Amino acid sequence: MKKLASLFLTGALTFGLLAGCGSTSGNAETPAGGNETTPVESNTPSETGANLEGTVIKVGATPAPHAEILEAVKDLLAEQGITLEIVEFNDYIQPNLAVESGELDANYFQHITYMNEFNVSDSTHLVSAAEIHYEPFGLYAGKTASIDELADGAQIAVPNDTTNEARALLLLQQEGLITLKEGAGITATKADIAENPKNLDIVELEASQIPSRLADVDLAVINGNYAIDAGLKVADALAVESADGEAAQAYVNVLTVKEGHENDPAILALVEALQSDTAKTFMEETYQGAVVPMF
Predict the structure, then answer these.
(1) Which of 125, 105, 104 is nearest to 115 (CA)?
(2) Measured in whole angstroms, how far is the alpha carbon of residue 210 from the centre of its chain?
(3) H or E element: which one contains 211?
(4) Kind and range of the H or E element at 126?
(5) Contact predicate 278/115, CB 8 Å
(6) DSSP-assigned beta bridge partners for residue 270
(7) pLDDT tens by residue, the chain, 295 residues
(8) Virtual CA dihedral for 178, 180, 182, 183, nearest 10 degrees?
(9) Residues near 273 by Cβ (< 8 Å), separated by ≥ 6?
(10) Are 186 and 170 contacting, i.e. CB atoms less than 8 angstroms apart?
(11) How far is CA 31 from the centre of its chain?
C-alpha cells in the first residue's frame, strides 16, 4: 500500500510445498530459498486424490490468531503425511514479497482488501486460495474510559496503512465521532473527515505499535490480531465492527498464494484443514468473538 510503513518488527517467512510447491528453509528473521524434496510414495492419497506423503508445508503467519490456528490443524495435515511448519512474523510486507518471489508458497495473516491493494502498490500477483476468518476491529479505552467521556481535542490512535486506517475511521463514524466525506468508504484517510465535532486528534501509528501506545492516547482502534497479542478482549472494547455486512466481506482474512498455485494439491489440503470443524471449534472457543469463522 502506498501509505504502508514497515512495522517495527520485521519477520521473514519461509514456506515450502511439495507436490506442486517448492520446499524452503529459513527462520523468522530472513526468508531463505531451499532445495526441493521428492515426495515419498504412499498408499494414503489426500482428499484431492494426490499423494502428499512426505510433503513439507511452511506457512508464514502472525503469532495470534493465525499461527495459533495453523497449529490447531497440524494433526489434520499429518494424517495425510503432510508436515506443517509455521514461521511467525510481525511484518505486513515481507510475507507478501516472499510469496511473490517463491521463497514462500503461502501466507496467512491479511484480509482480502489489503492483499488486493498490495498487488497494486507492489506489482505482485497474489490471490486468495480461501476465505478463513474475520477479525472485528475494536475501539479500546486508553486514558479515557468511555466514548461519552471524550474531551474536546482528545487523541484517538488509528493504524497508518491505507486499508486499516479507512476501516478505523469507518468505525469512528459508526460511533458518531466523525463524519467522512460521501463515498470515502474503504479508502478513507484523515483528509476525508468532513465533520469532527469534538476536534479529535487522529493519531496515525503503525498498527503493531498501537497496543503499546494505548496508555498514551484517549482511545485507540486496534487490529484484531494485535489486540489478541496484547491480551485485549473484544468483549472489553467500547465499540466493535459488526460481523455482518460490508466490513466482514471487505476484511475477511484469507490464505494467500501466488497466482497459479491456488489449486495445488497441498494448498487444497491446507484449505480443507483451515475450513474444518476442528478449526472452527478452535476459533470459537479460543477467541470468543474476536475471530469469526467465515466458512
Answers:
(1) 125
(2) 16
(3) helix 210-213
(4) strand 126-134
(5) no
(6) none
(7) 433 333 333 333 333 333 333 333 333 333 333 333 333 333 344 555 679 999 999 999 989 999 999 999 999 999 999 999 998 888 889 999 999 998 898 999 999 999 999 999 999 999 999 999 999 999 999 999 999 999 999 999 999 988 889 999 999 999 999 999 999 988 899 999 999 999 999 999 999 999 999 999 999 999 988 998 899 988 899 999 876 767 778 899 999 999 999 999 999 999 999 999 999 999 999 998 889 999 9
(8) -140
(9) 73, 76, 77, 279
(10) yes
(11) 19
The CA distances from residue 103 to 36, 99, 150, 295, in Å, are: 12, 6, 47, 29
Cell of 48: 484431492
Prediction pTM value:
0.70
Q: Where does residue 212 fall: left (phi above 0), alpha (psi -120 to 50 degrees), or beta otherwise?
A: alpha
